[in-house]
Structure prediction request, 638 residues.
Amino acid sequence: MATLTLRDLRKSYGPAHVIKGIDLDVLEREFVVFVGPSGCGKSTLLRMIAGLEDITSGELQIDGRRVNDVGPADRGLAMVFQSYALYPHMTVRQNMGFALRLARVPKAERDRKVNEAARILQLEPYLERRPKDLSGGQRQRVAIGRSIVRDPKVFLFDEPLSNLDAALRGQMRMELLRLHEDLNATMIYVTHDQVEAMTMADKIVVLQAGLVEQVGSPLELYHHPTNLFVAGFIGSPRMNLMPARVVEVTGSGVTVALPSGGQVTVPTSASGVRQGDTITLGVRPEGLHVDSAGQIAGEVKLVERLGGLTLLHVTSGVDLALTVQIEGSDATRAHETVHLSIDTAACHLFDKAGLALPRLVRHPMAA
Amino acid sequence: MRETVFQRVFAFVVGWGVAILLFFPIAWMVLTSFKSEVDAITPRLTFTPTLSSYAEVLSRADYLSFALNSVVVSVGGTVLALLFAIPAAYSMAFHPTQRTRGTLLWMLSTKMLPPVGVLVPIYILARDSALLDTRTVLVIMYALANLPIVVWMLFTFYKEVPKDILEAGRMDGARTVSEVWYLLLPLTLPGVASTGLLSLILCWNEAFWSLNLTTSSAAPLTAFIASFSSPQGLFFAKLSAASTMAVAPILVFGWFSQRQLVRGLTFGAVK
Ligand SMILES: Nc1ncnc2c1ncn2[C@@H]1O[C@H](COP(=O)(O)OP(=O)(O)O)[C@@H](O)[C@H]1O
Ligand SMILES: [Mg+2]
Prediction:
């Protein structure tokens, strides 16, 4: 078990700055997820931690010791690659035992550890097979097994589930969580999929263009995003955003005028905005309700029925697209006109720079 | 894609045409080696086969010592070239710098220089190092001559190896030597083998350096052939017999390794 400390970590490829100064603390036994759009530098950051990429500047510490100049073989970390990267010429047993063989662990102990990992991952029947004779899910398990066997300080995962089909992905997500619990391990997990981030993380690090946008627990990011990027990135379907104008600023909130007419008072602190400022109002799909007395009128363009949930895609005014999430199977049909009311307690406000006005009430689950 | 009848006939004709064209000189040489000297100067196909040329050739020269030299210098040159080329290709394939491409092209460009252009300096170097007419000098020359091609071939095979696999090895604790030994070599063994085979064949058939740097004690089979093209006039039957005996081992060798050779040489082309 180990802690990891990143201090102003930077990476450039020649003139291209890819990682632009990242500070982060990964605590013992924490499951940390790096999430962000593709190309934002997640893999690069993970590979810098692994030792597979040089660190241009800044400091990386494992258990308080600077390891910038320690090679990947000596950092004591294990990595699971998106491509699995199994050794094609070795059997599953040899794949899983390779690290121990390099470390000159005696054969008997090696076999015991490999067998134990195979038992945990239900790979026992396949130990003598080669990777090409395994399914995608089994290869994935072998890749995980290879890292478990080594008992590493930190597990690193780079989009390990993105080559699996949806059903298997859901199942593997649960298995990884179970492993995290059973092994009491520190894990860093990279994904572009915010659902994976939300379901697995103790701590999510949202990255964009080589910078950290926000660090926090899943529900903290969901209920208290600090900027527009995080608000838009976390949560599915995405948060609805609409332009609004500040009408009044009081101690109990900021009152804004909606583009469709009507006003709402959002319980946030003023944080520098003044009457007359343009501002962005954000409300998640579950914060909009179909309500004949609602302030926003719009036409239902499309209805997605998921059974337990119904999603209405509504266009209000000329081009304001809103998504409404309703519990259960709703009877609303496409091309109907609906009125929507806004749950003000669920609203967010973002100033011109895209920064969130702090909400006055913390969500009880957002530690 | 289905082939049409025309395509199949065309491929058949072209394929066999090229094969016969390439094989004809060898077949003719073998045929001539079984003729008497009188028959040999005529292109007749009907003659009384005789082994007299072979008997003559074997009585005049010690075939086995030439053959042994050929084996030693070919294997030696190939092994030496591989020893240098494996690390060179590894570093260029997996740790390229801005100069890697240039280095590769420069290596290849050395093959464009006619060997005779450096004959005098090489000869003098060999003479002053007391290496003339030794197997050592041929081993060194063959290794150097084949190095560009061996590096290039290994480089292309290495390029086919997914980077992830080597990185996984590094994460598993492999340093460079174990990485090459446990992962890269087993993964590219067909490629390394076909590179070695090609190098062996090139060394075996090399004549320029062997003729110029050796006289007797280190002379390989190419020198053995040359010794039968005498200034008093050509004896085609004996020359053919000598040539047949010189190329027979490598032909047999090539025949048995052709599957490996073809697989290596088309590696990457057929993914
Ligand atoms: N070797 C490299 N040379 C130059 N740019 C690179 C290199 N590797 C990655 N990049 C750039 O770094 C950025 C981040 O890449 P990456 O970390 O793979 O993103 P992610 O994993 O978040 O999708 C990308 O814009 C990519 O083009
Ligand atoms: Mg990536």
Notes: The pocket of adenosine-5'-diphosphate (ligand 1) is lined by residues A 13, 16, 18, 36, 38-44 (CB under 6 Å). Chain A touches chain B through 23 residues (CB under 8 Å). The CA atoms of residues 302 and 313 of chain A lie 5 Å apart. The longest helix of chain A spans residues 166-183.
